[in-house]
Amino acid sequence: MSFVLFLRENARWIAGGFLLTFFSSYGQTFFIALSAGEIRAEYGLTHGQFGTLYMLATLASAFTMPRFGQIVDRHSARTVTLIIVPMLALACVAMALSRSLLVLAVTIYLLRLFGQGMMTHNAFTAMGRWFAAQRGRAVSIVTLGHNVGEAIFPLAFVTVAAIVGWRNGWLVAAAMLLLVALPAIATLMAVERAPRSSDPLPRAAAPRDWTRAEVVRDPQFYLLLLGVMAPGFIGTTIFFHQVYLVELRGWSLEVFASSFTFMAAMTVIFALVAGQLIDRFSAVAVLPSYLLPLSAACLILAGFEAQWAAFAFMGLLGVSYGFSSTLFGAVWPEIYGIRHLGAVRALTVAIMVFATAMGPGITGFLIDLGVPYPWQIAAMGLYCIAASGLMLAVSRRLRARALQSAAPLARS
């Protein structure tokens, strides 16, 4: 099936998933950070104090996800949307009206849980269930909502905040969720997608449906996590310490900031490329290669001081980000089935959120101890090389396990 035909036949479900990831921006770090200066000033917080509060709220959302995220297994994507979008809007209102540190902490917790966590979780779980042979395509398009949000919302919020103030800007965000996102997504997802005769056949037989209890007893799951956590850990760490890196290298902060556009473009391109490769070869087959560009990115950033190294790093990071964003939406249903997909994905999302929360703190602690930052970045690159070798071994084991599981079915 051609890409255009795929979009035309599945427009409503793809659009619903895209809007979920797009409006998840309100709970993403880049959006909340737009108000960081005003928050610190009004609450009398230092950079470190606000960073600690933010980390604790994010970790609390990560610990909540494994249990709360299971609702996507018990309810339809539309019903879950009717729950999480109003809660995200409530968090936006709380950000606008809060006057105490306790309310601020709860607000950030809700933004992270329902924005970064549940909006994306609902979108990817739905795509994993609704598509099989075309799962890679579906996830690759839906994940672009994150990139479009990163491109649109910063300028939009800064413009609105300059006119009505930063607190009222959060009220506008809440209104957008209730008046635009909620009715649009609920309408698009009102009908669950069912398999069609025109759908291509999957390359392999569907796996059996693992429960989450079975998944956490699977040794391959923990080996997979060693690779899954790397892009978020490394990317968040580099972005958090970007000012320190720029000062260390003697670069222009403005030029470094412009490299984000290059990263975003590469992420979009390779998210779509990854979708095509996953549908053709499987997500498990792609596993061993997606960390190699990230390893090269880290080694270049650690070893070269010229400004071009920033663009090389961002471009290669975008390649790995594109692959990983699509891969992580497709690999779990391919390995563990779709019946308990929500519970399994909720656990993996929680672990990834935990990794992104801990990265900046660990590296900052090492910097304070005098460990050179370039050495740390180089170590991240070497880790990615080792993790790629590990993913190759895991990929082979998973494919062998799938063949063993399919053999009895073939004989019956």
Q: Characteristics of this structure?
A:
single chain, about 400 residues, mainly alpha, Growth Hormone, Chain: A, 2 domains
Please give a structural write-up.
The chain has 412 residues and is mainly alpha-helical. It folds into two domains: 179 residues, Growth Hormone, Chain: A, CATH 1.20.1250; 203 residues, Growth Hormone, Chain: A, CATH 1.20.1250.20. Helix 2 crosses helix 10, helix 2 runs antiparallel to helix 11 and helix 9 crosses helix 18. It starts with a helix and ends with a helix. 45% of the residues are buried. The model has no long low-confidence stretch (mean pLDDT 86).
CATH topology of the largest domain: Growth Hormone, Chain: A
Count of individual domains: 2
Structural class, judged by helices and strands?
mainly alpha
Tell me the series of helices and strands, N- to C-terminal: HHHHHHHHHHHHHHHHHHHH
Number of helices: 20
> What share of residues are in beta strands?
under 5%
**What's the Cα radius of gyration?**
21 Å
CATH class of the largest domain: Mainly Alpha
Summarize this entry quickly:
The protein has helices spanning 3-9, 11-23, 29-32, 36-43, 47-68, 71-74, 77-97, 101-130, 135-142, 144-164, 166-188, 212-215, 219-240, 242-249, 253-281, 283-286, 292-303, 308-336, 341-368, 373-411. With 412 residues, the chain is mainly alpha-helical. The chain has 2 domains: 12-190, Growth Hormone, Chain: A; 204-406, MFS general substrate transporter like domains (Growth Hormone, Chain: A, Up-down Bundle), CATH 1.20.1250.20.
SSE inventory with pairings:
Elements: H1 3-9, H2 11-23, H3 29-32, H4 36-43, H5 47-68, H6 71-74, H7 77-97, H8 101-130, H9 135-142, H10 144-164, H11 166-188, H12 212-215, H13 219-240, H14 242-249, H15 253-281, H16 283-286, H17 292-303, H18 308-336, H19 341-368, H20 373-411
